[in-house]
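--- STAGE predict ---
source: upstream dedup step, 1 unique chain passed
mode: sequence only
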Amino acid sequence: MSKSIKHSVMNKIFTLHSPLYIKYPNGETRVIEEIFQHPKGILYFELFWEKDPKYSIHLIKGEITGDGPWRVGECSFHVLGCNHTHPQMCEMHSFWQQELLQRPEQFRVSEVVKIALEKGAILPKNYPINDARYC
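--- STAGE serialize ---
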């Protein structure tokens, strides 16, 4: 039985500016583009989620524990170490950043918050919802 996280507590994982990745119990990993607090756990978007939103936006159910790495359900969330710690994931993240800068039209950045809210995400009171990127 999974516990819900409390709405009033904003875990550090949601305020980091460093890239994150998730590790599933089977060892599979995914680099995270966007992450949101959700009443049932964590909602996250994989890099390049636009290519296949049905399979690239995930809700991980469970209480958020830890200060990094964090655990939610049976998964763990980690800061992506780019000093030869996670070379393949760092390469993927760098490629995504380059594509975002060079061809922003192929990304749906403005839709992330809208989709997250539709899926029940909780935004902190100081979230830049009025930022032009989210309108």
